Amino acid sequence: MRLWNLFSPNRHSAAIAKERLKIVLAHERAGRGAPDFLPRLQKELIDVVGRYVEIRDDMIRVNLGKQGETSLLEINIEIDPAKPRPPAPRPAMAANPG
Amino acid sequence: MAKVIVITSGKGGVGKTTTAAAFAAGLALRGHRTVVIDFDVGLRNLDLIMGCERRVVFDFINVINGDANLNQALIKDKRNDNLYIFPTSQTRDKDALKRDGVERVLAELTQQFDYIICDSPAGIEHGAITALYFADSAIIVTNPEVSSVRDSDRIIGILSSRSRRAERNEPPVDIHLLLTRYDPARVAKGEMLTVEDVKEILSIPLLGVIPESESVLRASNTGTPVTFDPESAAGRAYLDAVARFLGEQREMRFVKPERRSFIRVLFGRA
Ligand SMILES: Nc1ncnc2c1ncn2[C@@H]1O[C@H](COP(=O)(O)OP(=O)(O)OP(=O)(O)O)[C@@H](O)[C@H]1O
Ligand SMILES: [Mg+2]
Fold first, then answer.
1. Which of A5, B24, B68, B212 could form a disulfide with B72 if both were Cys (CB 3.0 to 4.6 A apart)?
2. How far is the centre of ligand 2, averaged over its atoms, from the C-alpha of A19 (Å)?
3. Which helix (H) or strand (E) holds B175?
4. In angstroms, rounded to a whole number, what is the distance separating the alpha carbons of residues B86 and B38?
5. Contact B150 A28 (CB under 8 A)
6. Helix B126-133 vs helix B146-162: angle between axes, to the nearest 10 degrees?
């Protein structure tokens, strides 16, 4: 319903432009100034956690935030406890390197 | 001490060079000694827009490399005694713009001028970063269009993290929004972002709105900064922006459709 509203041909295209810009810039500003290692950190975390439970890329979120004067590295990992993994032998890991 | 003003945008072709020429000429008309420098190494164009292309002997890179001195390279405008043009070179060597060399040249220019206008190349590469690095003020040239607004936001971020003022923890670069190629009739029809939209999205103070205007092409054809054309709506809008930059209050003009279409706007849109 909302999507329909957003892209309805009756809606002025400038309003759509504004909406899209607000969303994309909010996202880009949040990522700005983040250290370059965040994507790599996220990937390695997926590898490590993936040894114990099944996990998809979108189940992990790494964020660098601020609380007052201190920087906070916030890591949110969603797991599905129904899908534990048997402890994988080491060689299996080597077959799936970063 | 001269004030260094960078004209930048991220996105290409939005009107930086037009603005640099118009703004520099506008400041000169107000009695300030002004030099406008072309930082677009390799794609020299400011000389054409300023109408001095046949007088270029030495350029910015020659001076940086010590092959010429400043006064050999500076071109004095024939229409206004306060105005000087500092053309760039057409070398393909992008790294010719060395930061310490630029710093030395700017320091020397500071002794002679009130305002130093830097016409930045597009993009966020070496040339654009060098153009904004020494800025005291920045004019962000933006068109009411999604990719231009997004790139402006990016450049604003770079100004606040990678300029010399940012690196030295000095007071930040004073940043202004200049919305150009604005078409009030299309805005009224909901086809183009409004001034308020862009202001709200970028949240930086608005210096002016320059209408889309045929006189800009005419001015570039003849090598005349558009502020030297008293007939031009764009030229008058640029002069208003200069006045605001100098601290005067001026109402925004050219933001509503022309009278002809006023009735249409009143009685439903056609
Ligand atoms: N207000 C305006 N009305 C109509 N045309 C305009 C206006 N401003 C700029 N233009 C036109 O837009 C084109 C690009 O302008 P300009 O060269 O100043 O942009 P630029 O940002 O310097 O480009 P580049 O990124 O390539 O250096 C030119 O053809 C110019 O005449
Ligand atoms: Mg240009």
1. B68
2. 29
3. strand B174-182
4. 6
5. yes
6. 60
| The Cα angle at residue B197 between residues B196 and B203, in degrees rounded to 5 | 80
Instruction: Kindly state if the Cβ of B165 falls inside 6 Å of ligand 1.
Output: no
Residue B140 token pair: 């962000």
Q: What's the pTM?
A: 0.83
Interface predicted TM-score (ipTM): 0.84
Say if residue B85 is exposed, middle or buried (CB neighbours under 10 Å; 0-12, 13-18, 19+): buried
For residue B107, give both structure tokens: 């320091």
Among residues B125, B144, B42, B27, the alpha carbon closest in space to that of B77 is found at B27
Residue type, B120: S
Which of B150, B151, B195 to mutate to test binding with chain A, by most A CBs within 10 Å of its CB? B150
Nearest CA to ligand 1 atom 9: B15
CA of A44 to the centre of ligand 2 (A): 43
Structure tokens at B262: 């006023």
Contact in structure between B153 and B183 (CB atoms under 8 Å): no
**DSSP three-state, residue B218:** helix
Residue with CA closest to ligand 1 atom 14 = B13
Atom of ligand 1 nearest to the CA of B19: 18
Q: How many of the other CB atoms lie within 10 Å of CB of A44?
A: 12
B118's enclosing H/E stretch is strand B115-119
Summarize pLDDT for A48-83 with one digit per residue, the tens: 988 888 888 888 888 777 777 777 888 888 888 777
How far is the C-alpha of B39 from the C-alpha of B120, rounded, in Å?
5
**Candidates B157, B190, B201; nearest CB to A15:** B190
Of B106, B115, B136, B145, nearest to B10 by C-alpha is B145
Contacts of A51 (CB under 8 A, 6+ apart): A85, A87, A88, A93
Tokens of A75: 């890591």
Q: Measured between alpha carbons, how far is B268 from B261 in angstroms, rounded to an integer?
A: 11
Are B149 and B201 in contact by the 8 Å Cβ rule? The answer is: yes
CB pairs under 8 A between A and B: 38
The model's pLDDT over B226-252, given as tens digits with 9 standing for 90+, comes to 999 999 999 999 999 999 999 999 999
Q: What residues pair up with B176 in beta bridges, in sequence order?
A: B139
Q: Give chain A positions within 8 Å (CB) of B194.
A: 14
Cα B258 to Cα B38, B140, B264, distances in angstroms: 35, 26, 11
